[in-house]
Amino acid sequence: MRRLALLCALLALTLAAHQTNAAQEEGDVVSRSELVRELPASADHPVPRIVMAAQEQEISCRPEPKRVLAVHYRAKPTAKFSMNDDQVVIALEKEGQYKILKAFESEAAIVEGLLYSDNDFDQDFITIGDLHFLYVRDNISGSGGIVMHDVYTMSSDDQLSSIPFENVSKSKLLKASEELRNGRYMFKNQHFSFEAGVYKPQDPECCPSNGAYHALFKLEGDFKPVPQTKTFRPDFKFVVAKEWRDEGS
Q1: At 14, which helix (H) or strand (E)?
Q2: Residues 156 and 175 placed together within one structural domain of the fold
Q3: Alpha carbon separation from 4 to 1, 7, 10, 11, 143 (Å, rounded)
Q4: What confidence tens digit (pLDDT) does each residue in 221-233 have?
Q5: Has residue 3 been placed in a domain?
Q6: What is the domain count for the chain?
Protein backbone atom coordinates (compact mmCIF):
# COMPACT_ATOMS: atom_id res chain seq x y z
CA MET A 1 0.00 0.00 0.00
CA ARG A 2 2.80 2.33 0.98
CA ARG A 3 4.64 1.44 -2.23
CA LEU A 4 1.51 2.17 -4.30
CA ALA A 5 1.11 5.57 -2.66
CA LEU A 6 4.75 6.34 -3.40
CA LEU A 7 4.34 5.36 -7.06
CA CYS A 8 1.24 7.56 -7.35
CA ALA A 9 3.12 10.50 -5.85
CA LEU A 10 6.02 10.01 -8.28
CA LEU A 11 3.59 9.81 -11.20
CA ALA A 12 1.90 13.05 -10.11
CA LEU A 13 5.27 14.80 -9.87
CA THR A 14 6.25 13.55 -13.32
CA LEU A 15 3.00 14.79 -14.87
CA ALA A 16 3.35 18.15 -13.12
CA ALA A 17 6.88 18.51 -14.39
CA HIS A 18 5.77 17.64 -17.92
CA GLN A 19 3.00 20.25 -17.79
CA THR A 20 5.40 22.87 -16.42
CA ASN A 21 7.99 22.16 -19.11
CA ALA A 22 5.54 22.14 -22.00
CA ALA A 23 6.01 24.80 -24.70
CA GLN A 24 3.71 27.80 -24.48
CA GLU A 25 0.86 27.52 -26.98
CA GLU A 26 -1.83 29.91 -28.19
CA GLY A 27 -5.00 29.60 -26.13
CA ASP A 28 -3.23 28.38 -22.97
CA VAL A 29 -4.13 30.15 -19.70
CA VAL A 30 -1.20 30.21 -17.30
CA SER A 31 0.27 32.16 -14.39
CA ARG A 32 2.84 34.91 -14.84
CA SER A 33 5.47 32.79 -13.09
CA GLU A 34 4.95 30.03 -15.66
CA LEU A 35 5.45 32.49 -18.51
CA VAL A 36 8.64 34.11 -17.24
CA ARG A 37 10.62 30.92 -16.57
CA GLU A 38 13.15 29.26 -18.84
CA LEU A 39 11.77 26.98 -21.56
CA PRO A 40 13.56 23.67 -21.07
CA ALA A 41 14.83 21.44 -23.86
CA SER A 42 12.29 19.10 -25.42
CA ALA A 43 12.08 16.51 -28.19
CA ASP A 44 10.98 19.22 -30.63
CA HIS A 45 13.57 21.75 -29.44
CA PRO A 46 16.64 20.14 -27.83
CA VAL A 47 18.16 23.43 -26.59
CA PRO A 48 16.69 25.40 -23.64
CA ARG A 49 15.58 29.01 -24.10
CA ILE A 50 16.22 31.62 -21.41
CA VAL A 51 14.00 34.67 -20.81
CA MET A 52 15.59 37.70 -22.49
CA ALA A 53 12.84 40.16 -21.52
CA ALA A 54 9.36 40.29 -20.00
CA GLN A 55 7.49 43.52 -20.74
CA GLU A 56 4.01 44.20 -19.38
CA GLN A 57 2.03 47.28 -20.41
CA GLU A 58 -1.40 48.42 -21.50
CA ILE A 59 -2.31 48.65 -25.17
CA SER A 60 -5.18 50.78 -26.36
CA CYS A 61 -8.68 49.37 -26.73
CA ARG A 62 -12.29 50.43 -26.17
CA PRO A 63 -14.11 50.74 -23.88
CA GLU A 64 -10.92 50.33 -21.83
CA PRO A 65 -7.26 49.42 -22.45
CA LYS A 66 -5.97 45.84 -22.19
CA ARG A 67 -2.95 44.77 -20.16
CA VAL A 68 -0.55 42.62 -22.18
CA LEU A 69 2.59 40.69 -21.26
CA ALA A 70 5.24 40.11 -23.94
CA VAL A 71 7.84 37.47 -23.03
CA HIS A 72 10.95 37.03 -25.21
CA TYR A 73 12.81 33.69 -24.93
CA ARG A 74 16.14 32.96 -26.64
CA ALA A 75 18.43 29.99 -27.20
CA LYS A 76 22.02 30.64 -28.18
CA PRO A 77 22.71 29.10 -31.60
CA THR A 78 25.85 27.03 -32.07
CA ALA A 79 26.00 27.16 -35.89
CA LYS A 80 28.12 29.76 -37.64
CA PHE A 81 26.20 32.61 -39.33
CA SER A 82 22.96 31.63 -37.55
CA MET A 83 20.39 34.16 -36.37
CA ASN A 84 19.23 33.97 -32.75
CA ASP A 85 16.73 31.23 -31.94
CA ASP A 86 13.73 33.01 -30.40
CA GLN A 87 10.21 32.58 -29.16
CA VAL A 88 8.01 35.58 -28.32
CA VAL A 89 4.75 35.01 -26.45
CA ILE A 90 2.00 37.64 -26.25
CA ALA A 91 -0.44 37.07 -23.38
CA LEU A 92 -3.47 38.99 -22.10
CA GLU A 93 -3.81 39.54 -18.34
CA LYS A 94 -7.18 38.77 -16.77
CA GLU A 95 -7.70 38.52 -13.02
CA GLY A 96 -4.09 37.55 -12.38
CA GLN A 97 -3.93 34.87 -15.09
CA TYR A 98 -2.57 35.19 -18.63
CA LYS A 99 -4.15 33.92 -21.83
CA ILE A 100 -1.66 33.36 -24.65
CA LEU A 101 -2.97 35.20 -27.72
CA LYS A 102 -0.04 34.72 -30.08
CA ALA A 103 3.32 32.94 -30.12
CA PHE A 104 6.10 33.72 -32.59
CA GLU A 105 8.91 31.21 -33.05
CA SER A 106 12.13 31.16 -35.06
CA GLU A 107 12.49 28.74 -37.96
CA ALA A 108 15.25 26.68 -36.33
CA ALA A 109 16.71 23.19 -36.74
CA ILE A 110 19.63 21.04 -35.71
CA VAL A 111 21.96 20.81 -38.73
CA GLU A 112 24.91 18.41 -38.44
CA GLY A 113 24.61 18.58 -34.66
CA LEU A 114 24.50 22.40 -34.52
CA LEU A 115 21.53 24.69 -33.80
CA TYR A 116 20.75 26.95 -36.76
CA SER A 117 18.03 29.63 -37.00
CA ASP A 118 16.76 31.50 -40.08
CA ASN A 119 15.20 34.40 -38.17
CA ASP A 120 14.84 36.12 -34.82
CA PHE A 121 12.56 38.73 -33.22
CA ASP A 122 12.43 42.09 -31.46
CA GLN A 123 9.42 43.62 -29.74
CA ASP A 124 8.51 46.88 -27.99
CA PHE A 125 5.46 48.72 -26.74
CA ILE A 126 5.11 51.99 -28.67
CA THR A 127 3.03 55.16 -28.39
CA ILE A 128 1.52 57.14 -31.27
CA GLY A 129 -0.33 60.20 -30.06
CA ASP A 130 -2.49 59.01 -27.17
CA LEU A 131 -2.62 55.39 -28.42
CA HIS A 132 -0.47 52.44 -27.33
CA PHE A 133 0.44 49.41 -29.43
CA LEU A 134 2.76 46.39 -29.50
CA TYR A 135 5.42 46.48 -32.23
CA VAL A 136 7.03 43.17 -33.35
CA ARG A 137 9.88 42.80 -35.87
CA ASP A 138 10.76 39.50 -37.55
CA ASN A 139 14.39 39.69 -38.70
CA ILE A 140 15.05 37.23 -41.53
CA SER A 141 18.51 36.12 -42.64
CA GLY A 142 19.82 36.39 -46.16
CA SER A 143 21.19 39.05 -48.45
CA GLY A 144 19.44 42.35 -47.83
CA GLY A 145 18.44 41.41 -44.27
CA ILE A 146 14.65 41.39 -44.64
CA VAL A 147 12.62 42.64 -41.65
CA MET A 148 8.86 42.06 -41.33
CA HIS A 149 7.06 44.73 -39.27
CA ASP A 150 3.78 44.22 -37.39
CA VAL A 151 2.03 46.76 -35.15
CA TYR A 152 -0.59 45.00 -33.03
CA THR A 153 -3.82 46.33 -31.61
CA MET A 154 -6.78 44.55 -29.98
CA SER A 155 -10.57 44.37 -30.13
CA SER A 156 -12.75 44.48 -27.03
CA ASP A 157 -13.32 40.70 -27.36
CA ASP A 158 -9.55 40.07 -27.11
CA GLN A 159 -8.76 39.51 -30.81
CA LEU A 160 -5.21 40.58 -31.69
CA SER A 161 -4.74 42.12 -35.15
CA SER A 162 -1.99 43.83 -37.15
CA ILE A 163 -2.39 47.36 -38.54
CA PRO A 164 -1.70 47.47 -42.30
CA PHE A 165 0.62 49.92 -44.02
CA GLU A 166 -0.31 51.61 -47.28
CA ASN A 167 1.44 49.92 -50.21
CA VAL A 168 4.15 52.27 -51.50
CA SER A 169 5.37 50.01 -54.31
CA LYS A 170 2.85 51.71 -56.67
CA SER A 171 3.74 55.26 -55.67
CA LYS A 172 2.95 57.97 -58.22
CA LEU A 173 6.54 59.14 -57.82
CA LEU A 174 7.78 55.99 -59.56
CA LYS A 175 8.00 55.61 -63.31
CA ALA A 176 6.59 52.51 -64.98
CA SER A 177 10.10 51.13 -65.46
CA GLU A 178 11.15 51.66 -61.82
CA GLU A 179 10.77 49.46 -58.75
CA LEU A 180 11.54 49.70 -55.04
CA ARG A 181 13.96 47.22 -53.45
CA ASN A 182 15.76 46.77 -50.14
CA GLY A 183 13.21 48.87 -48.28
CA ARG A 184 13.16 49.32 -44.53
CA TYR A 185 10.73 50.77 -42.01
CA MET A 186 11.86 52.86 -39.05
CA PHE A 187 10.00 54.07 -35.97
CA LYS A 188 11.15 57.29 -34.31
CA ASN A 189 9.42 60.13 -32.43
CA GLN A 190 6.03 58.38 -32.65
CA HIS A 191 6.18 58.12 -36.44
CA PHE A 192 6.93 55.38 -38.96
CA SER A 193 9.02 56.16 -42.01
CA PHE A 194 10.15 54.06 -44.97
CA GLU A 195 13.08 54.26 -47.36
CA ALA A 196 14.13 52.11 -50.31
CA GLY A 197 16.33 52.17 -53.38
CA VAL A 198 14.76 53.06 -56.73
CA TYR A 199 15.92 50.43 -59.23
CA LYS A 200 15.71 49.76 -62.91
CA PRO A 201 14.82 46.08 -63.61
CA GLN A 202 18.39 45.27 -64.69
CA ASP A 203 20.10 46.89 -61.67
CA PRO A 204 22.08 44.64 -59.30
CA GLU A 205 20.96 44.67 -55.64
CA CYS A 206 23.94 46.77 -54.61
CA CYS A 207 23.37 49.66 -56.93
CA PRO A 208 20.01 51.40 -57.52
CA SER A 209 20.33 53.63 -60.61
CA ASN A 210 17.64 56.12 -59.70
CA GLY A 211 18.38 57.13 -56.13
CA ALA A 212 16.15 56.56 -53.11
CA TYR A 213 12.47 56.75 -52.18
CA HIS A 214 11.26 58.06 -48.80
CA ALA A 215 7.83 58.06 -47.13
CA LEU A 216 6.48 59.31 -43.82
CA PHE A 217 3.33 57.59 -42.48
CA LYS A 218 0.48 58.79 -40.30
CA LEU A 219 -1.98 56.64 -38.38
CA GLU A 220 -5.62 56.92 -39.38
CA GLY A 221 -8.71 55.24 -37.93
CA ASP A 222 -10.27 54.39 -34.59
CA PHE A 223 -11.97 51.64 -32.62
CA LYS A 224 -15.38 51.19 -34.25
CA PRO A 225 -18.46 49.77 -32.51
CA VAL A 226 -20.02 46.57 -33.86
CA PRO A 227 -23.69 46.75 -32.74
CA GLN A 228 -24.46 43.10 -33.60
CA THR A 229 -21.86 41.76 -31.16
CA LYS A 230 -21.70 44.78 -28.82
CA THR A 231 -17.93 44.94 -29.29
CA PHE A 232 -15.36 47.43 -30.53
CA ARG A 233 -12.96 46.43 -33.30
CA PRO A 234 -9.84 48.31 -34.39
CA ASP A 235 -10.05 49.94 -37.82
CA PHE A 236 -6.64 51.53 -38.32
CA LYS A 237 -4.24 52.01 -41.23
CA PHE A 238 -0.85 53.65 -41.69
CA VAL A 239 -1.19 55.94 -44.72
CA VAL A 240 1.44 57.97 -46.54
CA ALA A 241 1.45 61.55 -45.24
CA LYS A 242 4.50 62.67 -47.23
CA GLU A 243 6.72 61.07 -49.86
CA TRP A 244 9.77 62.19 -51.80
CA ARG A 245 12.77 60.85 -53.65
CA ASP A 246 16.46 61.57 -53.95
CA GLU A 247 17.58 61.25 -57.54
CA GLY A 248 20.58 59.08 -58.41
CA SER A 249 23.77 60.52 -59.76
Answers
A1: helix 2-21
A2: no
A3: 5, 5, 10, 11, 61
A4: 999 999 999 999 9
A5: no
A6: 2
